[in-house]
Amino acid sequence: MKRTLKEVSIKDIRIDGGTQARVDVDPHWVHGMVDNMKNDVVYDAIEVRFDGTCYWLTDGFHRYHAYLQLGIKNIEVLYLPGTQFDAQLDALAANDKHGKPLTRADKEKKVRMALENPLIEDKSDYAIAKLCKVSRSFVGAVRDPKIKEKQAEAVKQHFLKKD
């Protein structure tokens, strides 16, 4: 399904629906975006899901906060019809190829969000990895701390062998 471009009031966009997959919004990144926007840099529209009542922000939290700082009242969004759950799934896949690079903590938060969601928590490591745009071994390590320990030991042994 193709997203549709539409202008909406920024106050109609919900950011409280469990769709922020980053650990936090980086104020320095937002400040840089604000400066860029003041100098006529145009960013892609933020992405939302619309459930008939609410626009759930799925991708573009830094842009959203930059628009707020600039006092912009209406913005263009790319939207798809869908539920809050659809928005949460979209958010898990966000920022894998654009925007501020995801930190390890951001990736871990995405995986934990998926593993804690009762509608998808029983999916395989492969399915969660595909959804969150991370490796299967990363999901395994988040799901099971013993796997994480084994992975860390394997890396340590690998580098010890090179010496």
Outline:
The protein has 163 residues and is α/β, with parallel strands linked by helices. It is 48% helix and 16% strand. The termini are far apart.
**DSSP, total strands:** 5
Rg is 18 Å
Number of helices: 7
Sheet bearing the most strands, described? 5 strands, mixed
Uncertain parts: none
Strand-and-helix sequence, N→C?
EEHEEHEHHHHH
Distance between the termini: 53 Å
Q: Give the class from helix and strand content and strand pairing.
A: alpha/beta
Helix content: 40-55%
* Biggest sheet strand line-up: 1-5-3-4-2
Strand content: 15-25%
The coarse overall form would be globular
Would you spell out the secondary-structure blueprint of this structure?
Layout: E1 4-9, E2 13-14, H1 27-38, E3 46-50, E4 55-59, H2 61-70, E5 74-81, H3 84-93, H4 104-116, H5 125-132, H6 136-143, H7 145-162
Parallel strand pairs: 2-4, 3-5
Antiparallel strand pairs: 1-5, 3-4
Note down, in words, how this protein is organized.
With 163 residues, the chain is of the alpha/beta class. The protein contains 7 helices and 5 strands, in the order ββαββαβααααα. A 5-stranded mixed β-sheet has the order 1-5-3-4-2, with helices on both faces. The mean pLDDT is 90.
Keywords:
single chain, alpha/beta, 5-stranded mixed sheet, 163 residues
